[in-house]
Amino acid sequence: MKRIADCSVNGCSVCPDERFSKTIMAQSQCNIENRLGPLLAMIPALAVGICFCLILAFLLNIEPGDMLAAIWIGAWGGANEAAATLNKMTPLLLTGLAVSVAYQAGLLNIGCEGQLTLGALTAAVFALGAAPLPWPLAMPLTVLAGALVGALWAFPAIWLRNSRGIHEVISTLLLNYVAIYLADFLVRGPLGDGTSMARTAEIPSAGIWPNWWNLGTFGVTAAPLAALLLSCILHLWRYQTYWGYEATACGNNPVAAKAAGIAVGRRQAWNFLLSGALAGVAGALEVVATHHRFYAAFSPGYGFDGITVAFLVNNVPGWTWLSSLLLASLRSADKWLQISLGISPNTIIVLQAVLLISVACQAGFRLPLSFGLGRLLERLQRHSNHREL
Amino acid sequence: MNILQLLTLTLGKTTPVLLACMGGLLSELSGVINFALEGMMLTGAFFAVWLTYSSGSPWIGLLGAAAGGTLIGILHSLVCLRFRANQIVSSIALNLLAAGASGMLLNQVFQVYGTSPTVEKLPALNQLGIGRLPFLGEILASGAGELSILVPLSILFNLALIAFLKWSVWGLRLKACGENPLAAKAAGLSVNRIRFLAISTGGALAGVGGAYLAIGELSTFVEQMTQGRGYLAIAALILGRWRPFGILPATLFFGLSGAFSEWLAVRWTGLPYQLFLALPYAVCLGLLLFQMDKKQPPSALGRV
Amino acid sequence: MRLLVDMQNICKRFGSLWANRDISLQVMPAEVHALVGENGAGKSTLMKILFGLIQPDGGSLYVNGKPVSFRHPREALQAGIGMVQQQMLIFPQLTSVENVVLGCEPRGWGLFREKEVERRLLELSRLFGFDLQLEAMAGTLSFAQRQQIELLRVLYRGARILILDEPTSLLSLPEVEKLLSLIKTLRAQGHTIIFISHRLQEVFSIADRITVLRKGKSIGTWKGDQISSEEIAALIMEESHPVSAGDSDRIRKKGFIQAAAVPMRPEPVLSLQQVTMPSKGSEGGLDDLSLQVREGEILGIGGVVGNGQRALARALAGLEKVDQGRILFQSREITGFPISRLVQLGFRWLPANSLEEGALPDSSLWENMLLGFQRKSVFQSWGWLHKRKIKDWTRQELNAGEVVHSSLQQSISSLSGGNQQKLVLSRALSDRPKLVILEQPGRGLDIHAQRRMHLKVKSLNREGVTFLVLSYDLEELLALSDSIGILYRGRLMGLVSSHEADRGLLGKWMLGLSG
Q1: Rounded to whole angstroms, how far apart are CA atoms C203 and C209?
Q2: Nearest C-alpha of chain C: how many angstroms from A385?
Q3: Residue C495 in 3-state DSSP?
Q4: pLDDT tens for residues B137-156?
Q5: From the list B83, B234, B275, which residue is nearest A170 (CB)?
Q6: Does this chain's domain C5-237 share its CATH topology with C254-346+434-515?
Q7: Among candidates C20, C2, C18, C19, which has minimal Cα distance to C59?
Q8: Where are the domains of chain A?
Q9: Is the dihedral of CA C97, C98, C103, C107 positive or negative?
Q10: Hey, CA dihedral for B98, B104, B107, B109, is it positive or negative?
Q11: Res. C117: pLDDT tops 80
């Protein structure tokens, strides 16, 4: 919430309290802002992203059209590519949900990378160990195991925050590194498949998630559907239940939430653990649906992508599918960009960073934007009201 | 490995974290959260190698590293001060940007992936011709001579920073901005300008930290070579209670834990090497866990 | 004798409000000049104009006979005028020396010449009897010492005219003594002090001349020995004749609600016993406060800002723990109870800054209305919120509370300040509360809205709800409450039934004079 400097009417009889201050934010945030807020966040960011691509194309002496076309072709050009993109949507959607769930309560979970990795490893190990179980039982339990470990890995960070005041960003980042080395050690050692290939054995076919759409050679697994289902559930949870309501209140104004009797610390902690669990699920689904085993350096940065995914749609679970689809497309396209235009795959990461920075900057001018839109709509509404009378 | 070797190794591991930590200190003392040290270091590392390659002199590379870090600092200032974005999200985004951009430029400039071609390093201590001095000569001969010149330079920088913050007028004004920007403004200071300068200079320092990794220790750029040292630097900042005195022992501790883990790795070959790689981060977490009182950051940290 | 400061016909307006209307003020050299008046009389505004923080809309200003116009406090400081405001602008983790000198540090080669400053500050301290530890961090100092930093700040910069805005509001009695003797020393050294205060005893102990402001106008200036504190109190509160008991009736008949006879049971439903709380920020604390609220009563607590009202509200709302003392509700001890328990017991609280402390700024109207009620079985089952019911209820409450809105979905920040207040108020009054603590309920509301709010409070009161109304506005308290108590320095100066309340007496209590 922004404030103008303290109102200069100190001591006037209307507002005798010396600390009266005005708020400028959202004098006109209205109905439309609430519903389409996520898109309001995304569109300017996309515009900046496209500008960036154009500038880059110019600098590299490539036709800008070629570049954008290459991204499209790389992501959706053929059946195989489309299937790969849709499959990639799963971990991105889930890490995006993880970040948004945490941010809803006012916290930043940057540790999705580590939580995802350990969740994946756990899932692989569990699937191997749960071979005798029938698949209707084994599959959900595997994912649940991944979720639990993800939540477990998020726990130290929120505990440090609540008891020692350490910012969760630092602790989750450090935990990321510990997780990656831990997983690395385990997969090369006791949990590996015995070869020197730093991976676990392949999970039994009973544990593998089936394809629901035989697109391309490998098809699209049921995992994106599961992720979409989760996002719907989370959306409902956030907007339709009182737990979601309380968590949003904590993130919005912890002082008022506390004064209303909400246990702010506890609510935030639960959200944070849920966030870790979602990242764990992301890892688990990657194992059981896509890769069928765990290997070293499992995540190509999905944990950090989740941040962009979440913020591009203003942390609304119901819209996260859109930004995750976008980022999945970008990720899929990087190989084709390399082959066809000779652009390093790292360019996609730069593009992502540009998108995230644009979204972050919008705090500055989304307000005037929604202010203007809001005023316009208010006028339209009033006009239509008058006409009815 | 004897004590001297351990000390040498420690100093070597401390230097990049110390430089980055100093950069973070400047920024946070002025009141702006800066988690982008990782990105500043990485950018510095890349620019160091790039400019050394193009110009043939590692000193130009060093300047380039400072420039690269400063660039990230300028971006952070712009996003946080002008656009009032969430300072942490901005930091994360810049880290991402640096990671991607360094990889991208690595490919563009050198047409390779992963590792750049080797370039000339900055001179090591035993190349400076001071080996003939009586006491120093012995120390240098026993391994400490391998250390880059940046090691003593970083300690000098730290001393200079301590002096700056403690004794100079502008150091005082910088701290004032981080304590109470409204009061600072009332006293006639231009808060945003001071913050901008602090963040940019901090970026330069962190960039030099990255230069150490690229042209001080190795002599090449490897993708993601910072490996989380930027985050260790932030933890050191917290443990050092945001004091220029405090960050030296905090970073030394991390350096020591890194050196120790390497030493242990050689001796206890039975244990997995990942344990030793993870040790500094685990130690860091442990230290954060066991500090008893809540540290006092600058009073207005994070408030624009 | 030549005038030192001559402010002539100063006018200043904020929106439609005249903070200063044609005020003239003359200050002599080496005198202590007190500026007194109620909240909102225009004292701070006038002094801010003198200090260059605000520009006047009309009038002229002369210092030492020369016409001046200050566009920034820097210019005022150059002319030798310094101001110590109520909100102290200090740097918590810097030392006292650094705090004093920031912005005009003496330097050589970029280095801070600390020794020079220390020498000068020690000189000043010795001269005026400060007991400031120069090396201590400002955040660890007491209010009195922080105030010394602020004083040193202006003295160091060579100010000869010192403006002090409510300097004693957060000081303990011995500290006040020290400050007053310091002011005497400053005067003896040739400084001129203008100070704003509502504490008449202090004013009378040192002021040479006293100027009374009321509602933006200057009523007059008197020599300290020419007038008594009772007369000053009367001048501040009412027309220039002393107030009689009949006046409270006159106020009531002005159109405010006549209290219907409400049967009040004599047992106290809420009782505070010797409650002590430390002062926090710019708010005073509570000092051995004992208070009883009878069931079915509307108790009004008045006083000037900074005398403990906020602390009382926060203690009762459960946000802060008291240092000493007990709080009893229906004879059961509730000291230190968590907020959720208090809410269950039927406590409701309307905070003073309703938007900052009681609302969710980014959320819609119905979400704000729901705050605190989200777990009620009528609004949710097994966690699922019944949005239609909630929205219907919100619509009902908003209409009853006359909150002007266009849609339930709109963000609360898009409502006007008054409507935001009305929303939070409706929420506080809903759902059969037992005890409602209203802080500044009328703030931001126009006359009609206030009237309707009073009606609602009275009707709820008839159904048996007990109210504790904390307000800085005496009129509001007189119109609304059954009994009125006045807080001064965290203590209860007195408690009277509002039928018998003498406005003059209440005013005197607010100014620290007893009986």
Answers
A1: 9
A2: 10
A3: strand
A4: 666 666 677 788 888 899 99
A5: B234
A6: yes
A7: C20
A8: 39-362
A9: positive
A10: negative
A11: yes
Interface check for C112 against chain B (CB to CB < 8 A): the answer is yes
* B85–chain C nearest CA distance, Å: 17
Prediction ipTM score? 0.90
Number of folded domains that form chain B: 1
Q: Is C157 on the interface with B (CB under 8 A)?
A: no
Q: What is the pLDDT of residue A342?
A: 82
Hey, is the C-beta of A19 within 8 angstroms of any chain C C-beta? yes
Chain B, window 144-183: residues with a beta carbon less than 8 angstroms from a chain A beta carbon: 182
Shortest CA gap A109–chain B (Å): 11
Place of tokens 């030296």: B248
Nearest CA in chain A to B103: A346
Q: Is C21 on the interface with A (CB under 8 A)?
A: no
Per-domain residue ranges of chain C: 5-237, 254-346+434-515, 353-375+386-431
C211 vs C219: CA distance, rounded Å: 7
* Residue in A with minimal Cα distance to B289: A160
The residues in A 225-254 lying below 8 A from C, measured between CB atoms, are 240-243, 245-246, 248-249, 252-253
Contact in structure between A256 and A249 (CB atoms under 8 Å): yes
What class, spelled out in words, does domain C5-237 have in CATH? Answer: alpha beta
Give C381-408 pLDDT, tens digit per residue.
Answer: 888 999 999 999 999 998 888 888 878 8
CA–CA separation, C509 and C506 (whole Å): 5
Could you tell me if C342 and C317 are in contact, meaning their C-beta atoms sit under 8 angstroms apart?
yes
Task: Please determine, looking at this structure, whether the domain spanning A39-362 carries the CATH number 1.10.3470.
Answer: yes
- Is the per-residue pLDDT at C219 higher than 80? yes
**Statement: residue B158 has pLDDT above 60:** yes
* Per-residue pLDDT tens digits for A333-357: 988 888 888 888 888 999 999 999 9
Place of tokens 């994070």: B302
The SS3 of residue C316 is: helix
Residue-averaged pLDDT of chain C: 83
Dist. CA B171–CA B30, nearest whole Å: 10
C-alpha closest to that of C92 among C12, C155, C146: C146
Flag if C362 and A252 touch (Cβ within 8 Å): yes
CATH code 3.40.50.300 for C254-346+434-515:
yes
Residue B114 maps to a domain: yes
- Dist CA C188 CA C129 (whole Å): 13
Which long-range contacts does B286-293 make (Cβ < 8 Å, 24+ apart)? B287/B235, B287/B239, B287/B253, B288/A160, B288/A164, B288/A166, B288/A170, B288/A171, B288/B235, B288/B238, B288/B239, B289/A160, B289/A164, B291/A164, B291/B239
Return d(Cα B214, Cα B205) in angstroms, integer: 14
Per-residue pLDDT for B252 more than 70?
Answer: yes
Q: Which of B79, B102, B232 sits opposite A361 (nearest CB)?
A: B79
DSSP letter for each residue of A155-221 = HHHHHHHHHH---HHHHHHHHHHHHHHHHHHHHHTTTS-SSSSSBPPPPPGGGSPPEEE--TTT-EE
- Beta strand residue intervals within C28-129, DSSP E: 32-36, 58-63, 66-68, 81-84, 107-108, 111-112
Q: What are phi and psi of A295, to 5 degrees?
A: -140, 165
Query: Exposed e or buried b for every residue in C214-241, given b needs 16+ CB within 10 A?
Result: bebebbebbebeebebeebbbbbbbeee
What backbone phi and psi angles, to 5 degrees, belong to A133?
Answer: -75, 150
Residue C118 sits at the chain B interface (C-beta within 8 Å): no
Chain B neighbors of A156, CB-CB under 8 A:
285
Helices of type H across chain A = 31-59, 64-76, 79-104, 112-129, 135-164, 168-188, 223-240, 242-252, 254-259, 264-285, 302-312, 320-336, 346-388
Q: Does residue B9 belong to any structural domain of this protein?
A: no
In-domain check, residue B261: no
